[in-house]
Amino acid sequence: MQWWCSVRAVAWDWTWRPFLGVWVLLALLVAGYVRLRRCHGVGTRGHTAAFAAAALAFWLGLDWPLGALAGYLASVHMLQFMLISLVAPPLLLYSIPPGAWARLAASGPPAWLRFVTHPLIALVLFNLIVFLTHWPTLVDALMVSQPGSFLINASWIAAGLVFWWPLVAPAPARPGFGPGLKMAYLFAATVTTSAPFLYLVFSALPMYSAYELAPPIEGITKREDQQVAGLLMKLGGAVVFWTGIAVVFWRWHRAEEA
Fold it and tell me: Residue 21 and residue 88: Cα distance in Å, rounded?
């Protein structure tokens, strides 16, 4: 009960801070999606539901109270990472109407898009961003300011879009990147994201000064908070990646039967 009262007090202390940036992002997201539907077709109910789920994940991850508590608890900051980098991007990409993908494929994707969404490049970029944005020196330098915190969140969104693009987006077409390689790609992600998990969980001392010096939350120590963050990354990431593997396998099996 003390823990909940402490968390509520911290979150309430931030209620006066307007999270206008989140609402601007959501407004731009909705406006862009409405324009896509007008220009390229409505798509199916599944596309609409996926967009709603993506917008919800962005809102939950960036708005109050998670947006406020992320400055006090590394575990909440990791939950933000899960929502805006691993959950929202694939839903957002899936929600794009097929007509928009067809036009992109017909016009020819730009060279830079083909490069950054190449599976090998995308996997490397994703893991590089994840590693750097969990490196203590960089986190301590950025988390002390709102622009720095925004830069971390924006990097996570970009990394998530790049990572999921080869798996979800039909353009640019990559005929050689079949279901087997897609499952291997997702499995590789479960392995490569283990480095931050290891040093977060098994470090003897808190690694982030930004969280160590933050006002304490009753009921959880700074080291326990850091360990929870590491477990969230490993277990939560595994759930997402293995769910992706299951979806790819199910679609592959259904296509073979057809």
Answer: 17
* Predicted local distance difference test score (pLDDT) of residue 104: 93
CB atoms within 10 A of CB 7: 20
Q: For position 19, what pLDDT does the model report?
A: 61
Q: Between the CA of residue 29 and those of 25, 53, 58, 86, 110, what are the distances in Å?
A: 6, 12, 10, 18, 22
Residue 233 corresponds to which tokens in the numbers above?
Answer: 């990354």
Q: Which pLDDT value is given to residue 13?
A: 47
Which pTM does this prediction carry?
0.91
Q: Which residues of the chain have pLDDT under 50?
A: 1-5, 9, 11-18
Can you tell me the distance from the alpha carbon of 142 to that of 120, in angstroms, rounded to the nearest whole number? Answer: 28
Task: Please list, in sequence order, all residues whose beta carbon lies within 8 angstroms of the beta carbon of residue 119, skipping any fewer than 6 positions away.
Answer: 166, 174, 177, 181, 185
φ, ψ for residue 176 (rounded to 5)? -75, -10
- Of the CA atoms within 13 Å of residue 41, those in its CB half-sphere come to 13
- Alpha-carbon torsion angle 113, 178, 195, 164, nearest 10: 40
Distance CA 122, CA 177 (A): 13
